[in-house]
Amino acid sequence: MSKRHTPAPGRRGFAQYVASHAIRASLCVAMYAASAGAMQAIAGVTPTISRIVMPAGATEVSARLVNINTYPVLVQAWVDDGRLDTTPQESTSPVIALPPIFRMDAHERKSLRLINSGAPLPTDRESLFWLSLHEIPSTSKNRFSDAQTVTITMRTQFKVFVRPVDKLPYPATELPKRLTFSATGGDSGLVLLVQNPTPYYATISMLDVSVGDTSQPATVDMLAPFSDSSVRLDRLRVKAGELAKVKFALIDDDGNSVEGERSVAVND
User: Mind listing the pLDDT tens digit for each residue in 14-50?
Assistant: First the structure.
Protein backbone atom coordinates (compact mmCIF):
# COMPACT_ATOMS: atom_id res chain seq x y z
CA MET A 1 0.00 0.00 0.00
CA SER A 2 1.42 3.32 -0.61
CA LYS A 3 1.26 6.64 1.17
CA ARG A 4 -0.45 9.31 -0.92
CA HIS A 5 0.86 12.44 0.77
CA THR A 6 2.07 13.64 4.14
CA PRO A 7 3.27 17.15 5.00
CA ALA A 8 6.70 17.55 6.60
CA PRO A 9 7.86 13.97 5.90
CA GLY A 10 11.09 14.39 7.83
CA ARG A 11 9.18 14.13 11.10
CA ARG A 12 7.59 10.78 10.46
CA GLY A 13 10.47 8.44 11.44
CA PHE A 14 9.01 5.00 12.00
CA ALA A 15 5.71 6.03 10.49
CA GLN A 16 7.40 6.73 7.14
CA TYR A 17 8.64 3.14 6.95
CA VAL A 18 5.25 1.76 7.85
CA ALA A 19 3.54 4.04 5.37
CA SER A 20 5.56 2.74 2.46
CA HIS A 21 4.05 -0.69 2.99
CA ALA A 22 0.77 -0.43 4.79
CA ILE A 23 -0.64 3.06 4.94
CA ARG A 24 -2.58 5.30 2.61
CA ALA A 25 -3.11 8.91 3.57
CA SER A 26 -5.25 11.77 2.29
CA LEU A 27 -5.35 15.44 3.18
CA CYS A 28 -8.60 17.26 3.91
CA VAL A 29 -8.64 21.03 4.33
CA ALA A 30 -10.97 21.65 7.23
CA MET A 31 -10.87 25.44 7.37
CA TYR A 32 -9.45 27.90 4.86
CA ALA A 33 -9.16 31.69 4.71
CA ALA A 34 -8.13 33.54 1.56
CA SER A 35 -4.72 34.56 2.90
CA ALA A 36 -3.57 31.51 4.82
CA GLY A 37 -1.30 32.12 7.74
CA ALA A 38 0.05 28.74 8.86
CA MET A 39 -0.20 25.00 8.42
CA GLN A 40 -0.24 23.38 11.81
CA ALA A 41 -1.11 19.72 11.17
CA ILE A 42 1.21 16.81 10.58
CA ALA A 43 -0.24 13.31 10.46
CA GLY A 44 1.30 11.63 13.44
CA VAL A 45 -1.11 9.09 14.93
CA THR A 46 -0.01 5.62 13.90
CA PRO A 47 -0.08 2.04 15.16
CA THR A 48 3.18 0.67 16.51
CA ILE A 49 2.87 -2.21 14.02
CA SER A 50 2.55 -1.98 10.26
CA ARG A 51 -0.54 -4.14 9.80
CA ILE A 52 -3.10 -5.87 12.00
CA VAL A 53 -3.92 -9.57 11.72
CA MET A 54 -7.14 -10.66 13.44
CA PRO A 55 -7.85 -14.39 13.76
CA ALA A 56 -11.39 -14.93 12.49
CA GLY A 57 -12.37 -16.69 15.71
CA ALA A 58 -11.10 -13.91 17.97
CA THR A 59 -13.60 -11.64 19.67
CA GLU A 60 -11.23 -8.68 19.65
CA VAL A 61 -7.63 -7.57 19.22
CA SER A 62 -5.86 -4.43 20.37
CA ALA A 63 -3.91 -1.95 18.26
CA ARG A 64 -1.40 0.19 20.13
CA LEU A 65 -1.37 3.77 18.81
CA VAL A 66 1.17 6.52 19.36
CA ASN A 67 0.81 10.24 18.68
CA ILE A 68 4.25 11.36 17.49
CA ASN A 69 3.04 14.96 17.09
CA THR A 70 4.17 17.64 19.52
CA TYR A 71 0.56 18.73 20.00
CA PRO A 72 -2.70 17.00 21.02
CA VAL A 73 -5.18 15.74 18.44
CA LEU A 74 -8.74 14.49 18.31
CA VAL A 75 -8.93 11.11 16.56
CA GLN A 76 -11.88 9.43 14.88
CA ALA A 77 -11.35 5.70 14.20
CA TRP A 78 -13.34 3.24 12.10
CA VAL A 79 -12.84 0.20 9.87
CA ASP A 80 -14.10 0.10 6.28
CA ASP A 81 -13.38 -1.29 2.80
CA GLY A 82 -10.58 1.20 2.11
CA ARG A 83 -12.30 3.66 -0.22
CA LEU A 84 -11.13 7.15 0.68
CA ASP A 85 -14.62 8.60 0.27
CA THR A 86 -16.20 6.20 2.77
CA THR A 87 -17.50 7.68 6.01
CA PRO A 88 -17.90 5.82 9.32
CA GLN A 89 -21.67 5.79 8.81
CA GLU A 90 -21.30 4.00 5.47
CA SER A 91 -18.98 1.26 6.69
CA THR A 92 -20.22 -2.32 6.40
CA SER A 93 -17.11 -3.87 7.94
CA PRO A 94 -17.67 -6.59 10.57
CA VAL A 95 -14.77 -5.09 12.54
CA ILE A 96 -15.62 -2.20 14.86
CA ALA A 97 -13.09 0.23 16.38
CA LEU A 98 -13.59 1.31 20.01
CA PRO A 99 -13.53 4.01 21.15
CA PRO A 100 -14.68 5.62 17.89
CA ILE A 101 -13.60 9.13 18.96
CA PHE A 102 -10.86 10.00 21.45
CA ARG A 103 -8.21 12.57 22.30
CA MET A 104 -4.48 11.91 22.28
CA ASP A 105 -1.97 14.23 23.91
CA ALA A 106 1.43 14.84 22.40
CA HIS A 107 3.52 11.62 22.42
CA GLU A 108 0.72 9.74 24.18
CA ARG A 109 0.22 6.01 23.61
CA LYS A 110 -3.25 4.50 23.63
CA SER A 111 -4.83 1.12 22.93
CA LEU A 112 -7.57 0.88 20.33
CA ARG A 113 -9.90 -2.12 20.53
CA LEU A 114 -10.96 -3.82 17.30
CA ILE A 115 -14.12 -5.86 17.91
CA ASN A 116 -15.11 -8.72 15.61
CA SER A 117 -18.90 -8.67 15.24
CA GLY A 118 -18.91 -12.26 13.96
CA ALA A 119 -20.50 -11.46 10.59
CA PRO A 120 -19.95 -14.25 8.01
CA LEU A 121 -16.73 -14.02 6.01
CA PRO A 122 -15.03 -16.41 3.55
CA THR A 123 -13.42 -19.35 5.35
CA ASP A 124 -11.02 -20.34 2.56
CA ARG A 125 -9.06 -17.07 2.44
CA GLU A 126 -8.20 -13.87 4.26
CA SER A 127 -10.51 -10.87 4.20
CA LEU A 128 -9.06 -7.37 3.99
CA PHE A 129 -10.37 -4.24 5.67
CA TRP A 130 -8.79 -0.87 6.46
CA LEU A 131 -8.48 0.90 9.80
CA SER A 132 -9.01 4.63 9.20
CA LEU A 133 -7.61 7.18 11.64
CA HIS A 134 -8.85 10.71 11.05
CA GLU A 135 -6.93 13.16 13.20
CA ILE A 136 -7.80 16.80 13.86
CA PRO A 137 -5.10 19.01 15.42
CA SER A 138 -5.79 21.27 18.35
CA THR A 139 -6.36 24.99 17.89
CA SER A 140 -4.29 27.46 19.83
CA LYS A 141 -6.24 29.39 22.46
CA ASN A 142 -4.09 32.42 21.73
CA ARG A 143 -5.16 32.68 18.11
CA PHE A 144 -7.24 35.73 17.26
CA SER A 145 -10.79 34.98 16.21
CA ASP A 146 -10.26 36.68 12.83
CA ALA A 147 -6.87 35.07 12.16
CA GLN A 148 -6.45 33.66 8.70
CA THR A 149 -5.20 30.10 8.97
CA VAL A 150 -5.29 26.74 7.29
CA THR A 151 -6.14 23.78 9.49
CA ILE A 152 -5.35 20.46 7.85
CA THR A 153 -6.76 17.16 8.99
CA MET A 154 -5.18 13.85 8.01
CA ARG A 155 -6.75 10.47 7.40
CA THR A 156 -4.42 7.49 7.40
CA GLN A 157 -5.38 3.91 6.60
CA PHE A 158 -3.86 0.66 7.83
CA LYS A 159 -4.50 -2.87 6.63
CA VAL A 160 -6.60 -5.16 8.82
CA PHE A 161 -6.55 -8.82 7.78
CA VAL A 162 -9.22 -11.14 9.17
CA ARG A 163 -7.65 -14.59 8.87
CA PRO A 164 -9.49 -17.93 9.35
CA VAL A 165 -6.32 -19.45 10.82
CA ASP A 166 -7.65 -22.92 11.65
CA LYS A 167 -9.24 -23.41 8.23
CA LEU A 168 -6.28 -22.55 5.97
CA PRO A 169 -4.03 -25.35 4.65
CA TYR A 170 -0.66 -23.76 5.54
CA PRO A 171 0.69 -20.74 7.46
CA ALA A 172 1.28 -17.30 5.97
CA THR A 173 5.05 -17.82 6.24
CA GLU A 174 4.81 -20.09 3.19
CA LEU A 175 3.49 -17.30 0.97
CA PRO A 176 6.89 -16.27 -0.54
CA LYS A 177 7.72 -19.74 -1.79
CA ARG A 178 4.25 -20.34 -3.21
CA LEU A 179 4.12 -17.28 -5.49
CA THR A 180 4.57 -18.29 -9.13
CA PHE A 181 5.96 -16.35 -12.08
CA SER A 182 5.77 -16.86 -15.84
CA ALA A 183 7.18 -14.73 -18.66
CA THR A 184 6.32 -14.12 -22.30
CA GLY A 185 8.69 -12.47 -24.77
CA GLY A 186 7.97 -10.27 -27.77
CA ASP A 187 9.05 -7.25 -29.79
CA SER A 188 7.47 -4.87 -27.27
CA GLY A 189 9.30 -6.39 -24.33
CA LEU A 190 8.82 -9.05 -21.69
CA VAL A 191 5.49 -9.58 -19.95
CA LEU A 192 5.74 -11.04 -16.46
CA LEU A 193 2.72 -12.74 -14.91
CA VAL A 194 2.72 -12.89 -11.10
CA GLN A 195 0.28 -15.41 -9.61
CA ASN A 196 -0.81 -15.72 -6.00
CA PRO A 197 -2.36 -19.18 -5.58
CA THR A 198 -2.53 -18.81 -1.79
CA PRO A 199 -5.35 -17.81 0.58
CA TYR A 200 -3.25 -14.83 1.78
CA TYR A 201 -2.87 -11.26 0.53
CA ALA A 202 0.58 -10.71 -0.99
CA THR A 203 2.12 -7.26 -0.50
CA ILE A 204 5.06 -7.08 -2.92
CA SER A 205 7.37 -4.24 -1.89
CA MET A 206 10.07 -4.90 -4.48
CA LEU A 207 10.18 -6.60 -7.87
CA ASP A 208 13.16 -6.60 -10.23
CA VAL A 209 13.54 -8.68 -13.40
CA SER A 210 16.81 -9.19 -15.26
CA VAL A 211 17.87 -10.96 -18.44
CA GLY A 212 21.62 -11.13 -18.92
CA ASP A 213 23.09 -7.75 -17.99
CA THR A 214 19.82 -5.86 -18.39
CA SER A 215 17.41 -5.41 -15.50
CA GLN A 216 14.21 -3.49 -14.93
CA PRO A 217 12.27 -2.83 -11.72
CA ALA A 218 8.50 -3.08 -11.69
CA THR A 219 5.60 -2.29 -9.38
CA VAL A 220 2.85 -4.77 -8.60
CA ASP A 221 -0.25 -3.89 -6.62
CA MET A 222 -1.11 -6.01 -3.62
CA LEU A 223 -2.35 -9.38 -4.86
CA ALA A 224 -5.57 -10.72 -3.39
CA PRO A 225 -5.83 -14.44 -2.64
CA PHE A 226 -6.07 -16.64 -5.74
CA SER A 227 -5.41 -13.72 -8.11
CA ASP A 228 -2.71 -12.62 -10.54
CA SER A 229 -1.24 -9.50 -12.09
CA SER A 230 0.89 -8.86 -15.17
CA VAL A 231 3.51 -6.19 -15.82
CA ARG A 232 5.19 -5.21 -19.08
CA LEU A 233 8.95 -4.71 -19.01
CA ASP A 234 9.75 -2.86 -22.23
CA ARG A 235 13.50 -2.71 -21.63
CA LEU A 236 13.80 -6.49 -21.65
CA ARG A 237 13.74 -7.68 -25.26
CA VAL A 238 14.12 -11.44 -25.00
CA LYS A 239 13.55 -14.52 -27.09
CA ALA A 240 11.68 -17.67 -26.18
CA GLY A 241 13.85 -20.06 -24.20
CA GLU A 242 15.96 -17.38 -22.49
CA LEU A 243 15.98 -17.24 -18.72
CA ALA A 244 14.70 -14.26 -16.73
CA LYS A 245 15.77 -13.83 -13.14
CA VAL A 246 13.04 -12.48 -10.86
CA LYS A 247 13.95 -10.95 -7.50
CA PHE A 248 11.15 -9.90 -5.18
CA ALA A 249 10.36 -8.97 -1.59
CA LEU A 250 7.15 -9.48 0.38
CA ILE A 251 6.03 -7.78 3.57
CA ASP A 252 5.23 -10.28 6.32
CA ASP A 253 2.87 -10.04 9.30
CA ASP A 254 5.46 -8.14 11.34
CA GLY A 255 6.14 -5.60 8.60
CA ASN A 256 9.50 -7.15 7.73
CA SER A 257 10.76 -7.68 4.20
CA VAL A 258 11.12 -11.31 3.07
CA GLU A 259 13.11 -11.72 -0.14
CA GLY A 260 12.80 -14.38 -2.82
CA GLU A 261 14.23 -15.24 -6.22
CA ARG A 262 13.09 -17.28 -9.22
CA SER A 263 14.51 -18.26 -12.60
CA VAL A 264 11.80 -18.20 -15.25
CA ALA A 265 11.99 -19.56 -18.79
CA VAL A 266 10.58 -17.11 -21.33
CA ASN A 267 7.74 -18.42 -23.50
CA ASP A 268 6.60 -17.24 -26.95
Answer: 333 333 334 455 544 433 333 333 444 445 899 988 8
Domain with CATH 2.60.40.10 in the chain: 9-167, 172-267
C-beta atoms surrounding 110 within 10 Å: 16
In this predicted structure, the answer to whether residue 149 has a pLDDT above a threshold of 80 is no
**pLDDT band of 238, cuts 50, 70, 90:** confident
> What is the Cα–Cα distance from 174 to 85, expressed in whole angstroms?
35
Domain 172-267 has CATH 3.40.50.10170: no
Fold of the domain spanning 9-167: Immunoglobulin-like (2.60.40)
